[in-house]
Structures are given as structure tokens and as C-alpha cells.
Amino acid sequence: MMKNIVGILFLAFLVSCGGDDTPPAPEATNLIFPEENSECTTGTSLSETLSQVTFRWGAANHAERYALNVVNLETNSPQNLTTTATSASLSIAKGAPFAWTVMSFNSDSDESAVSETWLFYNAGSETTYAPFPAQLVSPESGETVIMDIANEVTLEWDGADVDNDIDTFQVFFSETNPPTTTLGTTDASTMQMSVGVTSGVVYYWKVVTTDLEGNTSDSGVFDFKVF
Known about the structure:
6-stranded mixed sheet, Ig-like_fold, 7% helix, mainly beta, Fibronectin type-III domain-containing protein, Immunoglobulin-like, 19 strands, 2 domains
């Protein structure tokens, strides 16, 4: 009996000393520059159409390398760069809106982490800028959703503008792609709209943002299916 007790205690000691050998997953970094919803004016001019912009972010816990992703929102063209530093320079189009994110990686972990997504305009010759394309939030593209008790789904989006002069959001919604039916418009402070739907149908939607200068931007089309 005594030998059994000693054996059990010895095994318990080994387990308690073993610890957790799972490598720590990298954490998301904090973006620094270009600032969110800003005009970037510090780029180095390379030509009439291009300038070099240096992106900066904070060091993330347990991260060994980072992947910078920058997307031209007018052309949907991405540029990607991997680095162990917390800054990187890219040549990007002047006078265009961009979205950027940074992913964190660690070679000891299969997991990764992604930062927030920030939008900015790269400075050009413009004195006024079109609004950023609305970022469609819900339903997500390709998602299957459940309608509410009123047979409706709520469309939600985010809008931003360097000049801070958004006037309206116009919502397009239909069963065809691109959507052709106008649901209506909302003011700058309203970024959601409920719409009647039918079970089993795929719908397409987009948002066109207009500012007080008459400049417009198109969100691009999302689709979703109703359960």
C-alpha cells in the first residue's frame, strides 16, 4: 500500500512539474502610421502617379515576423510584404484610397493574429477627396443568415471621409448582381437599414457614399443567402 501511495505522489509531482509546452501564439500589433481615416502627406514622390510611403506599427508580443497588406480601394489591387521589422515602405498610387493591415507570425506556433484595418488616402494633387468606400459589415459576403420575426435582415456598414463631409449613403439591393434596386438613402450618422427578404434566396447589396462636394465612392458588392 505504501509503495502505491509513493508511486502516485511521484507521478503527481512529474505532472505538476511538466507545465504546458504549447508555444505562445503571436498577438495582434497596433497600427501607427498612416493614421486611420487620414490623408498621408509624408510620402516621397517617385513620379507623377507614385509615392513611397513608410508604414509603421508596434511590436507585438510573441511575434517574430509581420506581413503587411495594403489594398488600393479603387482597383482592389493588394500589395504584400513580409518583414521582421516594425516598419516597411511601399510604392503606392497618389490620390487613391487604401486599406492596410498587419498580420503577426511566430515560427513556433501555427496561429497568427491580425491587426485592425485602417483606411487612408495617399496624398495627390486633390484638394478634396471622395469618401472612403463604405466597408460592408453585416451580413458578411457569402454568409447564410436567419431573418427576424418580421422577415427582415439588417444591413450594416461603416463609412469614413478624410474631409469629414459625408452627406448620404445610398443602399442598392436586389436578387441580381450588380444590385439595381435602390432601397433609399440615409444620412451620415445612420449606417444600417432593414430590408424584407425571402427564405432560400441569394441577395446582393452595395452602398454608394456621397459627400457634400458631390464626390462618390462605391463599396463593391456583397452577397448573402437567407436560411
